[in-house]
Amino acid sequence: MGRAPCCSKVGLHRGPWTAREDTLLTKYIQAHGEGHWRSLPKKAGLLRCGKSCRLRWMNYLRPDIKRGNISPDEEDLIIRLHSLLGNRWSLIAGRLPGRTDNEIKNYWNTHLSKKIKNQGTHHEKKSKEPRKRNSKNNNNGTTKKQEQNRAKTETKIHLPKPIRVTSLLMKRSNSFESNTVSGTSCSQNGIVEDDINGVVGKEIVDFPWSSDLNDHGCELGCESQLSTRENLFERLYEEYLQLLKKEEQKKEEREEEEEDQVKLDSFAESLWV
DNA sequence: AAAAAGCTCAACCGCTTTCTA
DNA sequence: TTAGAAAGCGGTTGAGCTTTT
């Protein structure tokens, strides 16, 4: 399969993006939408390769990106999903709305892999110490950069990116369409489709267990094996939905508090005058 | 105060997968 | 069916920042 040369092209900018480039890219995508990354830079007036543009947009400029520290709940979810999916960062990111695969990958490599390693060697030790580099920062333990980013984009509650899940078997049988059903479900040929909130997504996913199932043949307890794992995933997702609910509640509470504070302030001001 | 060590994360690289003619 | 183009993914790198000595 051919692969066109990309960033190696002479004359293209590389390295960190400037504010001007960000603006150009954002404006172009707002006007014309995502996609056609190859031709986008030229049309947008950018001296970047399409790949670079896509990455910048996906990992940084997209409006729905959630910035700031990974919450303990999110961390927990990442760990669970990683144990389930392995290094399938984009899949994991798909379950953490507003988080990018790159961010999760970085977080895993810098924090969680060590943490889990430590837990492996010292079971009873639970690393509660805050990140060292945050000790000099503000109260919330965020870096300046993260704080700036947080200010830019208020935390939003997002619905998870819907994904379609399929096994290796499906690739062979090629009978996806006729076997899909609504809801997270499993059909006989190993297809699992995740249809969240009635939206059927576009991503096709291999689950680590699908190959196992294939190896052992589907007749022998395939459905029960699959449904057990599927249930696990479903439970996990249920937990996550609850997490989202909680976050939403917290947000509402925060907003209420802020409102109260404003009222108090204006009341205090009126007394002062 | 300065140098060294450690850490983070944006960006790049190269590969695979998917799409399309 | 095939091959090229496009998109997507995971691993890796390195600049810049923080912490430690």
Describe the secondary-structure layout.
Blueprint: H1 19-32, H2 40-44, H3 50-61, H4 72-85, H5 89-94, H6 101-121, H7 144-152, E1 163-165, H8 168-173, H9 176-179, E2 185-186, E3 192-193, E4 195-196, E5 199-200, E6 203-205, H10 208-216, H11 222-272
Helix pairs in contact: 4-11, 10-11
The chain binds a DNA duplex (21 and 21 nucleotides) through helix 3 and helix 6.
Q: Please give the order of strands in the largest beta sheet.
A: 2-3-1-6
Total count of helical runs of at least 4 residues: 11
Mean pLDDT: 60
Categorize the overall geometry.
Answer: globular
Q: Spans with pLDDT under 50 lasting ≥5 residues?
A: 1-8, 122-226
Number of domains: 3
Summing up helix and strand content along with how strands pair, one would put the structural category as: mainly alpha
Strand content: 5-15%
What's the N-to-C terminus distance? 75 Å
What's the multimeric state? single chain
Characterise the protein shown here.
By secondary structure, the chain is mainly alpha-helical. The chain folds into three domains: about 20-60, Arc Repressor Mutant, subunit A; about 70-120, Orthogonal Bundle (Arc Repressor Mutant, subunit A), CATH 1.10.10; about 160-273, no CATH class. It is about 55% helix and about 5% strand. It has a four-stranded mixed β-sheet with strand order 2-3-1-6, with helices on one face. Strands 4-5 form a two-stranded antiparallel ribbon. Residues about 1-10 and about 120-225 have low confidence and may be disordered. The structure holds a DNA duplex (21 and 21 nucleotides).
